Amino acid sequence: xxxxxxxxxxxxxxxxxxxxxxxxxxxxxxxxxxxxxxxxxxxxxxxxxxxxxxxxxxxxxxxxxxxxxxxxxxxxxxxxxxxxxxxxxxxxxxxxxxxxxxxxxxxxxxxxxxxxxxxxxxxxxxxxxxxxxxxxxxxxxxxxxxxxxxxxxxxxxxxxxxxxxxxxxxxxxxxxxxxxxxxxxxxxxxx
Amino acid sequence: xxxxxxxxxxxxxxxxxxxxxxxxxxxxxxxxxxxxxxxxxxxxxxxxxxxxxxxxxxxxxxxxxxxxxx
Lengths: 191, 70
Fold this sequence. Notes:
The complex is a heterodimer of chains A (191) and B (70).
Chain A: H1 9-22, H2 32-44, H3 48-53, H4 55-66, H5 77-80, H6 82-108, E1 116-119, E2 123-126, H7 138-164, H8 170-173, H9 175-190
Antiparallel strand pairs in A: 1-2
Helix pairs in contact in A: 1-4, 2-9, 4-7, 6-7, 6-9
Chain B: E1 11-15, H1 25-29, E2 35-38, E3 42-45, H2 55-59, E4 65-69
Antiparallel strand pairs in B: 1-4, 2-3
């Protein structure tokens, strides 16, 4: 089969995670994988991001598919249920807004910058080697730490389900995927 | 001479629309591009084209594709 440029998008995903080890401010780039799918869903009315460009999806199909790290078992029924998918989306967005709130507190001067990356919303890892100061407000760095935590956490969850079930099991409950599908459904109903 | 015709069992892919997440993994592995992601909502198999090879069913992360006899 013909290779497309977007077959190599996994490199972007890996690079993103690596850059976060050296300078946390690169975490801001992650906003691209947040807005591009939404824009594609709203403008082009499709899940083109998931279908083609998603670097994380490519990474998982590479690890689980080509490298065979996946057990290739069916995902349990509850994980593909609407309740779990929408529940996870709600939970994810709540944590996202909490992260924005923490950023706001730093901007407002009520809290000081915490140089930690929170894994799975619980485990706080010191991450001070990746912060070398910023020309802007420390709140900018606080957002970067928060956003990198989200990206790393979701990658870890994705890797766990990739090993347990199928390579791209993350796609089943990916909050971005659920959100873009909801947008497409809403637009179809509106038509 | 009578040639006994062997009944050939044909299988085709069916998508469980309720649980399809429209991720596009199936469309990606389909060797003849018989699957499209319909309006970003779910996968749609072109049954005219489908060969029933089962690659999509194996790939589907939500395991919502199954091969049915037609």
